[in-house]
Design goal:
Elements (H helix, E strand, L loop, with lengths): L3 E7 L7 H15 L4 E7 L1 H7 L3 H17 L8 E4 L5 H10 L4 H5 L2 H12 L11 H4 L1 H11 L4 E3 L5 H17 L9 E3 L29 H10 L17 H9 L2 H12 L4 H27 L2 H30 L6
Parallel strand pairs: 1-2, 2-3, 4-5
Helix pairs in contact: 3-13, 4-8, 4-14, 8-9, 10-13, 11-13
This protein binds tryptophan.
């Protein structure tokens, strides 16, 4: 049976938080245990350079993200787990795709459009102020990530659907121009069931709002942060609405259906906020204790993480190198003899 190739990239630009776990890491690790799936998961570290020019942060984030996925049980025997920057074929393919990709297509990419719109709002006469070629051409790099491994499915957030469509566009154009089926057309998969978690202030948990709870915060820190989650002024004994409550939302993202139903009942019966927070902390801590310990041990052993990623890169390159070799022939850059 031909396995479905599922590929996704994680941009290392911060410390993984509960929202990342629920929205991306957990579903990806679950998918990696499905025997009909061949996962390709990678650290999109070339992408990280678009937004972050602080080498220490890029380096630290790469390590933290790799340690996080391993600590949470990613099966690297099945999943090909690698760093984008270890695959030199990816930037090479990026160039080939750049040469068949219309500039006008990139003008429509939303990250670029948002940067231009910000300049306009700020009354900036140059609409491209602060826009690098990295930001402008970012969907081409992403297309190379995907097309290199002939991914069938790409699980992404809504904001990334456009990029998958652009990758299909580039694949189709290359196939057409060079008259062959070199690339599989990828499909975006947006899982409607995946939850978007609220953060400390009730807005979406996101690094850019500075309202996150790091997945592997120490016990003490976790308690402190849970206590900071915004609630309202209802007193203990007054019935509370679980559906508009961040505490309940985070709890139910981790809990079983029965546990959530039980907690829902306690909201209706008027659980106090202090108690609800203590329960959430206990629950999270119980689930995160073991992976946190594994995470700490991994962070102490970067050599091990390096070995795992090198093995992943080797498996990835075993596919990328022959494809690139073929593509060189196809575009007229093959050897003379
Ligand atoms: N751009 C994606 C994001 O910001 C990360 C990413 C890079 C990616 N390359 C990819 C996702 C390829 C899926 C496939 O979330």
């Amino acid at each position: 049976m031909q396995k479905t190739r599922v590929l996704t990239g994680i941009t290392p630009s911060g410390t993984p938080h509960l929202g990342n776990y629920v929205g991306a890491i957990k579903p990806a690790i679950q998918a990696s245990q499905d025997p009909s799936v061949q996962p390709y998961y990678f650290l999109a570290d070339l992408h990280a350079l678009i937004k972050c020019q602080d080498p220490k942060r890029v380096q630290q984030s790469r390590l933290e993200i790799a340690a996080t996925w391993l600590a949470l049980g990613l099966d690297t025997d099945n999943a090909v787990f690698y760093r984008q920057s270890d695959i030199p074929e990816i930037p090479e393919l990026t160039w080939m795709l750049s040469c068949v990709c219309a500039k006008g297509l990139m003008n429509r990419a939303h990250a670029y459009k948002a940067a231009v719109a910000d300049n306009e709002t700020a009354g900036q006469p140059d609409p491209d102020k602060g826009v690098t070629m990295g930001l402008f051409g970012y969907p081409v790099l992403m297309a190379a990530d995907i097309l290199m491994f002939n991914a069938n499915k790409v699980p992404v957030g809504r904001d990334q659907i456009q990029h998958i469509e652009m990758a299909r566009d580039m694949a189709g154009r290359f196939n057409h121009l060079y008259k062959g089926q070199y690339f599989t057309l990828p499909e975006a998969v947006v899982d409607e069931r995946v939850q978007v978690l609220g953060g400390l202030d009730g807005r979406k948990m996101s690094k850019s709002y500075n309202n996150t709870i790091p997945l592997f915060a120490s016990e003490k820190k976790l308690l402190k942060l849970v206590r900071k989650i915004k609630t309202n002024s209802l007193e203990p004994g007054e019935p509370k609405d679980p559906d508009s409550c961040t505490l309940f939302q985070i709890y139910s993202a981790f809990a079983t259906q029965e546990e959530s139903a039980g907690m829902r009942q306690r909201y209706l019966e008027g659980i106090g906020w202090g108690e609800a927070k203590d329960e959430l902390f206990e629950y999270l801590n119980m689930h995160l204790r073991e992976p946190r310990e594994r995470y700490m041990a991994l962070m102490e052993d970067p050599g091990h993480i390096e070995t795992v990623l090198q093995e992943g890169a080797e498996r990835a390159r075993a596919e990328a190198a022959p494809l690139m070799e073929r593509l060189r022939q196809v575009v007229g850059l093959g050897r003379f003899i």
